[in-house]
Design brief:
By secondary structure, the protein is α/β, with parallel strands linked by helices. The protein is 33% helix and 18% strand. Strands 13-22-21-14-15-20-16-19 form an 8-stranded mixed sheet, with helices on both faces. A 5-stranded mixed sheet has the order 3-2-1-4-5, with helices on both faces. α9 crosses α11, α11 crosses α12 and α15 packs across α18. The termini are far apart. 50% of the residues are buried.
């Protein structure tokens, strides 16, 4: 039985395909269209289905769209429309905002357009596909009988619990909004979820964090992670303001009071305006109070359920600092966080949920121990393209050893290997890698990627060596928790140590990604350091590269030194290193030796 999962309601459009409970493929639409997050989260874009992502999933399964048994869409419009409009054929949409009685019936006057587009998604799938993708869509006769609208937060919860290694667990989802819920609490058993509580709109921790993101001059539903990074530079000057806004009640409930941030903090920061201590302090205060709220909610959930395992999903679960606070508090013995915790992951959750319901299966058949579910290209395909483009390249005899040699010279590389990652973080398939030993590397990478100066870079570390370099470090393959860098190692990996002494680590083992693991081993042999800097293979405002063409174009238009693509290396001429290193002749190997 094939089940296609789709997310297209808000942002991070994505698709996945599940066969009899086993994930075959999962990817985001942005990787194919080069439009970050797939589309903007406005009502006028709801009709856009992730056709390129769907096409890729069908390709992996080797089937046509008509071979799909079930389609799971991760939003249920009927939870909003309710009985009032059930059976009606029309709904009113205003010509201009604010001039319609619909303002009182829906969250905003454009919500009828939003909902209408979702309800008509089956028709859009049948005949709205791009012409160049017709091979797997032409003649589509998928009817509504195969279509399942899955509650948004059920999709979030299933994406965490049904992929986790746990037979039973408490499950919490926290995001901006679903149909009505913004936070939910479930008990997971087998492949079933029992809802024990939820918080509804307009009260939303995720939307409050989005508002702060906007107030600080960033793009909401996109740049919240920048606020988390900015917070490390501030002080809790406005913590009481946010404690007045967020009120935690009993039974997992909370309310968000008046959150007019302009009234509280003055005008919004405009993009490209200089950051000041004032902005740092707003970010720090918001982050601190979010962590306090998450601790109270997870503490209640543990007491209510008595479970020792916790699963987290929703956009707020990508906040690795808050996740670490929950881990360190010790309410739960084990915590598992969905690596695609944002809305992209709801495509997976919806598919797994429908699959389990339709097969009437309560036995777990899939555990997500890696995130490499996207496209891949063979050496034959890559070399054919390199020759076509007349790109100078050479074949590597030993990928790990020769790449480690380049990295030990303080050079920055693009690393393009295997299947692409699913989720927002590059984890060793579409990564930019560098040595962590030179303290200037963090600034250099931010310049290479045209990122803000305050942004940290993250380390990947051999799983078996993680505890030697980071306090209490353990299995952490998805970069979803922070750990303190050990004091006796801090001066050996300064590039990945954030201003607060922490690092958002990824651990890697041989089973997850052998090429990546072998590279770490080779780098350790040459430098004594089993750690590399790992950041996403993209530049500012662009999605992570997907195809060989994406990788080569990004490489030649960015100031880094080499591209390792499959078994091949492309190098720029010597002397093109970034000027930030011009005053330092110390190589990574020399630093250790």
């Amino acid at each position: 039985m094939f089940t296609l999962g789709i997310n297209a309601a808000f942002h991070d459009s994505a698709a996945c395909i599940v066969k009899d409970g086993i994930l075959l493929a999962a990817t985001e639409e942005e990787r194919f269209t080069h439009f970050k997050h797939g589309k903007r989260p406005v009502p006028f874009s709801t009709w856009e289905l992730p056709f390129h992502a769907i096409d890729y999933c069908l390709k992996v399964a080797g089937i046509h769209i008509n071979d799909i048994d079930h389609i799971a869409y991760s939003f249920d419009p009927y939870l909003i429309i309710g009985e009032k409009y059930r059976g009606k054929e029309t709904i009113e949409i205003p010509f201009e905002e604010g001039r319609s009685h619909l303002n009182d019936e829906f969250a905003n006057p454009w919500e009828p357009l939003f909902l209408s587009s979702i309800i008509n998604a089956p028709g859009q799938l049948r005949d709205g596909w791009p012409h160049h993708l017709q091979q797997r869509f032409i003649g589509c006769n998928i009817g509504r009988e195969k279509w399942h609208f899955v509650e948004h937060h059920i999709a979030h919860a299933a994406s965490a619990f049904n992929c986790s290694p746990f037979r039973t667990a408490a499950v919490m989802t926290v995001d901006g909004r679903g149909e009505q819920a913004t936070t939910t609490y479930n008990i997971g058993r087998g492949q079933q979820l029992d809802r024990i509580g939820q918080v509804n709109m307009p009260h939303s921790l995720g939307l409050l964090y989005e508002d702060v993101t906007t107030h600080l001059g960033f793009l909401h539903s996109s740049d919240e992670y920048k606020v988390m990074a900015l917070a490390s530079y501030g002080k809790p000057e406005f913590a009481n303001d946010f404690r007045e806004i967020i009120h935690i009640g009993s039974n997992g409930q909370y309310t968000i009071n008046n959150q007019n941030l302009v009234e509280r903090f003055g005008p919004k920061r405009l993009r490209h305006e200089e950051f000041t201590a004032f902005h740092f302090n707003i970010a720090h205060s918001m982050q601190l109070v979010l962590e306090e709220a998450m601790l109270e909610l997870t503490g209640w959930l543990q007491q209510e359920t008595g479970e020792e395992n916790l699963c987290l999903a929703g956009g707020v679960a990508l906040n690795c600092v808050a996740n670490a606070r929950i881990r360190d508090k010790g309410f739960f013995k084990n915590i598992w966080v969905q690596p695609a915790s944002g809305d992209d992951g709801t495509a997976l959750g919806a598919a797994l949920w429908v699959d389990a319901q339709e097969r009437k299966s309560d036995e777990k058949t899939f555990v997500m121990d890696h995130c490499y579910w996207g496209p891949q290209y063979t050496d034959v395909e890559i070399e054919k393209q390199l020759k076509l483009w007349k790109v100078p390249y050479r074949k590597l005899d030993n990928i790990a050893e020769e790449t480690a040699d380049i990295l030990a010279q303080d050079k920055i590389i693009g690393w393009y290997q295997g299947r692409m990652e699913f989720g927002p973080r590059a984890l060793g398939s579409r990564s930019i890698l560098a040595s962590p030993i030179n303290p200037a590397m963090q600034a250099r990478l931010n310049e290479v990627k045209d990122r803000e100066d305050f942004r940290p870079v993250a380390p990947v570390v051999l799983q078996e060596k993680a505890h030697e370099w980071f306090n209490n470090a353990e299995y952490s393959p998805f970069m979803l928790f922070i750990y303190d860098v050990k004091e006796d190692k801090a001066d050996k990996i300064p590039a990945v140590r954030h201003t607060d002494g922490t690092a958002r680590i990824q651990t890697i083992n041989e089973q997850q990604h052998k090429d990546y693991y072998d590279l770490l081993k080779a780098f350790e042999r040459k430098t004594g350091v089993p750690v590399l800097v790992n950041t996403s293979f993209n530049t500012l405002g662009k999605p992570i590269v997907c195809t060989p063409r994406d990788a080569v174009e990004c490489f030649w238009s960015s100031p880094f030194d080499a591209l390792i693509i499959g078994s091949f290396v492309i190098e720029k001429e010597s002397g093109t290193n970034n000027s930030i290193y011009s005053n330092s002749n110390i190589s990574a190997a020399e630093t250790v030796n």
